[in-house]
Design goal:
mainly alpha; MetI-like fold; 2 domains; about 80% helix; about 0% strand
Amino acid sequence: MTATLPGQTTPSEETAVTSTLESPTAEAVATGTAPAPVVRRRRGRRAVGLVLPVTVFAALIGVWYAITYLVLDPGRRFLMPAPHTLITDALLDPTITDKVWPALGRSIVVTFAGLAIAIVIGMLWAIAMSQSKAVESSLYPYAVALQCIPILALVPLIGFWFGFGFPSRVIVCVMIALFPIVSNTLFGIQSVDRGHHELFTLHRAGRFTRLLKLQLPAALPAIFAGFRISAGLSVVGAIVGDLFFKQGEPGLGILLSNFSSRLQGAPLFFTIVVTAALGFAVFFLFGWLSKLVVGSWYDQSRDR
């Protein structure tokens, strides 16, 4: 056993100090003052994050072409037209785009209307359950039931009750997008560190102050995770509502049904791609909002 003189550091302490000095903070990396190897590693990860999705996309396009030209007979290629035909026979065809773009606008309106209502109802529902165990035990089973009930079984009833127009489409969208907001918000509020609660109790903070200044800010990462999930589901809700409520101005769902019934392969796949692009756009919009609201402190805490 080696004795340590006053003022002398042990090897383990020297290692800890060295690792602390060599590990850059997120601010150092962001401002460019971090060591060169760390910056290169960060750039390498970003490059990999861009290259891998592009590689997978190229592979999927290759598989698509292989199925079209190697698997399907020439007489059945309309079932899965080649990717370039989506451009030549749909995107560059005014008779198709004059139907798709207005339908896309109507589906966007339904998507955001249903998502906004789901956010308001879901957050109020979760906040009410977080403030009382009795309220949680009374209301949470119905949130689970709303998630478990097949929405397609309720769609005809919604049409009979509220008509077959815009309100019914929004209601379907709300029902599909509601549960992730409720569950993630409730989970985030209930996951606040006990020590933080004790600090607020020490300062005799009221229930409203605790909710507004502690629980909701701490739950923001979970809340926005629920928003991102519900954003994609709201697009599904808009399409499902269109498929069943075939009245009024057509949305993307009605176009999918029409193109499918007419065996128009290229317009059908083009509409599917547009629908998927809408889902991606809404999802990444809320991902960007999440980084804007909580990324400045939440990402740094995860890095540490």
